[in-house]
Each structure stands twice: as C-alpha cells, then as structure tokens.
C-alpha cells in the first residue's frame, strides 16, 4: 500500500467500499427509491420537470341504506403537488388539507356555477362571509391538527411508467399519515402495457394485492379515458387483526374461499391528457352482507377525485440539493395496520369510568355484562400513552376496591407500546408476584407487530433477567425480537436488535469462560442459547466462537447441542458447510452429528445433497445412519420443499437395505 500514490489509494478504497455495498444488497441502491434500473423508453406517461398541481377530494359516508337520512360523513379536501426530479422517482407534497364532518361542502362545489355568481351579485361580500362562516362550522374540530400532520413531510416514491413499486417515507412519518398518502398514490398507479390495449393483471396498492382489470372507455386525439375495476374479494394482505395472539395468514385457493362478510365494489375512471393524468374519479362501496337485503343494509361509500389544477415550472437540481439523497426507509403501498396512539381527555375519562364499572360488575359477584365492559376498557386503553396509563395504574387502588387488580389483569391484553412499558416497570421494580410476572412474559411473547420502542422496553427486561434462572424473561423477550425481525428486513442491522444480541452473547461468553460445572450456570447458558435461537440473529464473531465450542470435546454435550440449535433461524446457507463438516465427522458425538445434519437439511442444494449421500455410503455409526435414512424417507413423503432432494437420495437400494433394519427406527 505504501507504493501507491495518495490519490490512487483513495480511489482504491472507494472502489472496495462500493463493491462491498453492492455485494451486500445488489438490488437496492441507498440513493434510489425503488429498483436501481430505470427504463424510460416508450413510456405511457410523460411527466416532465414541472410541478403538477392537483385538487384531491375524498368523501366517505357510512349509513344504513334504505332506513332514511341517518349517516356518518367525513370529507377531505386538499391541494397537492406531484413532481418528478428524476426519471423514475417522484415526490408527493400536500400543501393544504381540510377535514369536514358533513358532505355539504362537497355538494356546494358540485352545484351550478351560475347560481353562485348570481348570489354574489346580490349580496356582494356578505355572501362570501356567510359561506366562510358556514364552512368553518362544518369543519371537523381536528382539521387544523390534521393539516399539520399531512403537510409536514414529503413522500418519495418509485414511478416506473405507472408502476409504484415502493414508497420511501421519512423516518418520522407516522403510519396513519403514510396510509393516506399511499391511498393518493394508489389512484395514480397504472400497470397497463399500453393505453389502447385492455389488460388483466395483479397490482399491489393500499387495498392489498388485488386482481385488476383495465378497459379503454373513450378516446380522442389528445386524451383517453380508462376504466379500472378492482376485485376486492381477490385481495391478499388486506386485513389485520388486533389481538394479543399471534396468527399466521393463510392464502386459500380461489374456489375454497369463505363467504365474505363484506360485499365490495371498486372502480375508477382515469382520464389521461397528453400522457398526463387530467382527472381520476374513483368509487368504492362496502356492504355488510349479514342482515342486508339487496342494496339495503350497513353500507360505506367512498368517492374520491383527483383533478389537475395547473402546471408550474421549478428547478429539479435545486430541489435535489436541498433534500436528502439517501433513502431513510422503504415500504410498499400496502396499508400499514399499526394503531395510532393519540390519547384525549375523553379517552382518559372513559377509561377511568370503565374501570369503575368493572369493579361494579366484576369480582367477587361477576355479572353478565362484565365481558362487554372489559372489552370496551381494552379498546379505550389502547390509545393511552405511557404517562397516562402509569397514572391510571397508580390511582387505580383508590379508584375502586378491585381497581388495581382489574388493571393489572388487563395490561397484557391492551397490546400497546405504553402497556408494555407499564408492565416492564412493574416487573423490574418487583411490584407483583413472580407467578403474575411469568404469566405476563408468556403473554407478551405473542406480540404481533412490535416497534423499536417496544424493543427498548424488552432490552430493559433482559438486563433485569441477567443471571436469573427464570427462563420466562429471556425467552419471552427474545420471542418479541423475532416478531420484530419477521416484519423488518435486515433487522440484524437495527441498532436496538444489535444491543439485545450483544447483551445475550456477552453474558453467555462470560459465563462459559468462568464455567466450572455449576448446574445453575449451565442452565443459564442453555437459556441464553435458546434466546439467541429464538431471535435468529447472531454476530459473526460470536458464531465463530460458538462453532468452536460445539467442536470442543470438554464442553458439556447439552451446551454443544443447544449451540447448534441457536442457528436454527440464522441464515442457513451461510453456515451450511460447517454443519456438513460436523455431520461428516465420524468421531463426533452421535447426537451432535444428527443435529448438524438437521441444520444442514434446512437449505439443501445439489452439492450438499451429494455430500450427504457420500457420508451415508461410508457411514460408520448405525444410529446416525438409521436416523438420517428414516428422516429422509419421511421427508420424501411429506410436502416439505426439500422433498425432491430427499427422493433423489432414496434411489440407492444398497443404502435402503443397510439402514432399514435398525430396530430403534
């Protein structure tokens, strides 16, 4: 390196760093939202380097259709801008947003313009003042706060000739605001190959992954109108449940789907003028099928309209200089079901009143309405923040006789970040019985969508659990970290996940280095390895040390076995060769060889299958060979994705005769 010139050395280091970054994730560029390659040839759309101003209106009405004028309405009006400083990247900016709790403002906008002019002539400015006063009266009380939240941040998105594959919001963007912006961009999405050719395809937008049909409605020399129909019943990734229990979504075959509770329809009319959206009108209806008759019943109707209001010039280069180039986070257009936490005085008061009501109808004389009161209390408490919920718990003993007990029993089922923090405080400060603390940790292990704040909460619990034999604390907390990793790509790069991993790994290595055969220390090391196995993430340095321990003859066998199990959720291909070597080591403990074989079979490829076959042909330990052969036989008959590889191994008749006679199998 000393013979290189300084400038050449710098370029070499930059080249190495760039090569490493590409190797880590070749399909993502940290400076680009969406896929790196942009193909702008023969495009359907032609958005230039200009600001496209749109008026956006969405009206939602929920009513019992056919039962008179009895409805709940909500109207959103906003002005927004969409612009494309890069060929395949756009930005959405909301400049003004107003929220109304009636649809009168929508009807006023659609009334005849000549009548408005006539009214102005008669009453001059007085009519305008009355109109502004009426608009203010109809405005939702949260409209001002709503406007602040919606206009705070830009939204960056990928735009590949109509396909919006990814949005890249800023880190501080809240889920509910992002969902509204996803809804706006979903209307902009068009995945047709050409405007003049009808298309049937599958799209991913705020409704989920749905089947969509495009049909040409009308055309002229400068514009086309396209009808877009979405089959809501075919949508996947659409629904979510708010429950303390973890569930796994299952996609049924189309001919085996259950009877839908909602009868939904969705279609849009897209008007494109000179390869730019001129107007988008959408209608979506949801009818509750039970207790409905034809079109009557509980009905929600949503109508939206995007209308081009003008075009302005701007400097794309200046905009890019003033805004961060690196992508902070990525997401699809799919709706984010993370609940918002914004407590109000009414909710605090309602939670206190429901707690008093639970005391009245609950223990010791439990009445039938207790379950309804309990459910309402859980729903109300979900919106309380940490400070409010802590105060409610502190005052619960004086609120009513059983108030504290009712609140403690409710905390695991509230399912909010605030409730996890309150439970952490009670556990760490040992303000409850050990049995209740264990029950809480068991319940908390089923958290479905933990956030980073929740990880910080459980990091505190893991620190409290140091050198404790209570497995509930470590195993429950690590199960929550695994749930976080299921919903966050590259979670091993998350700082809070790294802190938790480092905490567990450091404690294990400290205990192992000082281990002299104590039962208590050995049990704690097993718990730590199980916890790391729960998460499915280990550091490279710790993986090397653990692999050395697995091969260390002086280490206890149970520690070595659980060391192998600690890799059960780690990237299989990364450590496959190590476990194949263990399996092929005939001098190794038989149980260790079997566990290593099972680990390698999580991700078999052509080469590893050949290695396993070669080891079987020269197997010296009948116990290991019989287990492997019986496992392959069962695997070949199952629906496992690796059954094809297993069937290929079973073609050897000599191996079949050799291992099938072991009486233990």
TrEMBL record:
Transmembrane segments: none
Signal sequence extent: 1-21
Annotated keywords: Disulfide bond, Glycoprotein, Signal, Storage protein
UniProt keyword tRNA-binding, yes or no: no
Residues of the Vitellogenin domain: 45-665
A GO MF label: lipid transporter activity
Name of the protein in its database record: IP15506p
Gene giving rise to this polypeptide: CG15828-RB
